[in-house]
Amino acid sequence: MARRDYLTQTELMVLLAIVRLGKEAYAVPIAAEIHARTGREMATASVYAVLERLEDATLVESELGEATAERGGRAKTYYRLTAQGLAQVRETQRALQQLWRGLPRIRSKPA
């Protein structure tokens, strides 16, 4: 499959949630942050699928935390953006701003 050079909306939301969460960016709070900011519910399994895709594309990197008792001794996997991931977020922001710039006012009903 050919590699894309753009982010999907869901990938962008996950990346932005990671930036917002900083050192606390793992799947559960990422899903909660997306829901809190957008009202969109995202299953934890979906977050993991996106994170795996982003990691494969070298846009994020992960690090295993300490094992915790509340997780039955399992460790959390924390995520952070790579330099390439941050560049991709900035490029997406620039592209979207260009698309919005000069747009006629959007009405609730078609003209």
Account of the 3D structure:
This protein has 111 residues and is α+β, with helices and mostly antiparallel strands. Helices cover 50% and strands 14% of the residues. The chain has a single domain (9-100), classed as Winged helix-like DNA-binding domain superfamily/Winged helix DNA-binding domain (Arc Repressor Mutant, subunit A, Orthogonal Bundle), CATH 1.10.10.10. The protein contains four helices and two strands; from the N terminus they run αααββα. It starts with 8 loop residues before the first helix and ends in an 11-residue tail after the last helix. The mean pLDDT is 90.
Annotation keywords:
50% helix, globular, two-stranded antiparallel ribbon, 111 residues, Arc Repressor Mutant, subunit A, 2 strands, alpha+beta
Number of domains: 1
The overall pLDDT average reads 90
Oligomer: single chain
Reported by name, the CATH topology is Arc Repressor Mutant, subunit A
The helix/strand order is HHHEEH
* Main structural class: alpha+beta
Main beta sheet: strand number and arrangement?
2 strands, antiparallel
Classify the helix fraction into a percent range: 40-55%
CA-based gyration radius = 16 Å
**Intertermini distance:** 41 Å
**Order of strands across the biggest sheet?**
1-2
Short structural summary:
With 111 residues, the protein is α+β, with helices and mostly antiparallel strands.
